[in-house]
Design a protein that fits this description.
Number of strands: 9
Helix content: 25-40%
Structural class: alpha+beta
Oligomer: single chain
Mean pLDDT: 85
Strand content: 35-45%
Distance between the termini: 108 Å
Number of domains: 1
Low-confidence stretches: none
Radius of gyration: 30 Å
């Protein structure tokens, strides 16, 4: 065997060495893909929990504002199937003449409404002076990926039973039924029954 063929055999990769390299690459790619898949599952589950937390916070805020709602001759209550507007205590920027960077509690109005075309739920509010003109501060997006939102209104009859009514006057209770989409495109449903102490 001459020197050239000896050098060739020393530099060449054997079939066994090539199989080992391919096996190591396969194991590494499997480990990386499993880590990626598990990470995506964890992220998806976290996002789902975030959506449910956002809904819980929204319903808690709505409940608190409705419990503080009251009848006020200058600010009318309006209850529709996908919209509710009522007088309550709000925290808004101070009026001109007061310190402009302060938020103060005052009588005002709040409105929640569902836009079925874009499947989003909005909230807007106004202070006393804007409420008298039936105007609002800019709306705020509260939830997206909402399939439906329906409000139901109840009053207490003489026997103390809750009876469903229209939304012409501030009711004794409001029920909000909310259907939304999770991250996998599935539908979930949540309902909240809210008593209004100053309602009829």
């Amino acid at each position: 065997m001459n020197n050239r063929s000896r050098n060739f055999h020393r530099k060449a990769i054997t079939f066994v060495e090539m199989l080992m390299v391919v096996s190591l690459l396969a194991l590494t790619s499997i480990a990386v893909s499993n880590s990626l898949i598990n990470g995506l599952k964890i992220w998806s589950r976290t996002q789902e929990l975030v959506i449910e937390e956002d809904i819980a916070v929204l319903l808690d805020k709505m409940s608190q504002e409705l419990r503080n709602a009251f009848n006020f001759s200058q600010i009318s209550f309006e209850g529709k199937e996908t919209r509710i507007k009522f007088a309550t205590i709000v925290r808004t920027p101070a009026d001109a003449g007061q310190s402009s960077d302060e938020y103060i509690p005052q009588v005002g109005q709040v409105e929640y409404y569902f836009d079925a075309l874009v499947q989003k739920l909005y909230r807007r509010q106004s202070n006393y002076s804007l409420a008298l003109k039936n105007k609002f501060f800019p709306e705020r997006l509260m939830l997206s990926s909402v399939k439906s939102l329906k409000f139901y209104y109840f009053y207490q009859d003489e026997e103390g039973k809750l009876v469903e009514t229209n939304g012409d006057v501030l009711p004794s209770a409001v029920r909000a039924d909310l259907e939304f989409f999770d991250n996998q495109g599935g539908q979930k449903f949540v309902s909240r029954f809210i008593y209004v102490p100053t309602g009829i």
